[in-house]
Input
Amino acid sequence: MPFRPHIKDLKPYVAQPPVERLREELGLERIFKLASNEGAFGPLPAARDAILADPDGLRRYPDSSAPELREAIAAKFGLEAGNVVLGNGADELIRLAGMAVLENGDNGVFPWPSFPTYVAACASTGAEARPVPLTADWTVDLDALKEAIFPSTRIVYIANPNNPTGLLAPRGDLRAFVEGLPGHVLCVLDEAYAEYAEGDDQPEGPQLVREGAPNVVVLRTFSKVYGLAGLRIGYALASPEAASAIDRMRGIFNVNSVAQAAAFASLDGDDEIARRVAHVKGARTQIFKWLALAGHKPLASRANFVFAEAAGGSGTEVEQRLLSLGVAVRALDGFGAPSAFRVTCGSDTENQYFAAALDRLANGA
Ligand SMILES: Cc1ncc(COP(=O)(O)O)c(C=O)c1O
Output
């Protein structure tokens, strides 16, 4: 079969198998999963109610344009419903943004190591994926990224905070980069972890959209701090023109009705969200400390996970050894960092269990 040449080179995204399957395969009593950066606490109470509220309604298709939800999201950011596109997770929106601008022979650029969907989004349109290496201290190299932009470049993806490093791009530098982009380049600021970031460099993607930037697309998700990863819902904020182009790429019913209802109900939960964010901040400080004490080289994360270069130089080895002790973390070869691994901030119990497992490893387990 003449499948597209780019597909041949594309590595499939290998997600961690469900915990229950892993547990059975390994014959372990239990596994704590700190591998996929989901929120530790699940849906907010109002979202739980919304999920259970109308099972009979499931015989109907969802509301394809979801005006109330889009309006509610827009209001949160001082924007209009026409600035908001819903996606089956931010993951789908990464691809839809690519589909809206990329053609065969074009290319997309992004820092690397980063989120593997950027590679897939380029390849799935027949465009070339052009990863631009991070600096030696794992930060985004905006100068190199700028130099990688050619007349054939149509899109640049920047995860901020970056996954897997958890680091932020300096705010002023990123703004200058975005404002200096040529008009033919769409800039996707993937802010899936924005809620966990604080301080002067907090992501300001929505502000750029409010200012009317025509070429900026900001991605956010309900998968992390809102605890709805299994329902698959995220959103893009963009100029009406860019939002409309991306919206025309999506499947008609890409976001199901339960996800829409749960997302809508989640938007009033600011106090609980603040508590969750505070918990993550405490947890990532502890995890950083434990990792450093065990001889690994962690980075100071601004997200809900911590990246570390493995003491022995292999993230996979740490992943396998921790798994044998009942903790699933993420080796990062698929993200472009084979020397490293990533630990998601979990509940207190999960984090304590991780600390104990790390200790056992350091003592030769
Ligand atoms: C940087 C980044 N963007 C997007 C996503 C996808 O999120 P979603 O669950 O909304 O598809 C993730 C998920 O881990 C991510 O790390």
Summary: Residues 37, 89-91, 115, 159, 163, 190, 192, 221, 223, 229, 234 surround pyridoxal-5'-phosphate (CB under 6 Å). The domain at 16-42+270-362 is CATH 3.90.1150.10 (Aspartate Aminotransferase, domain 1).
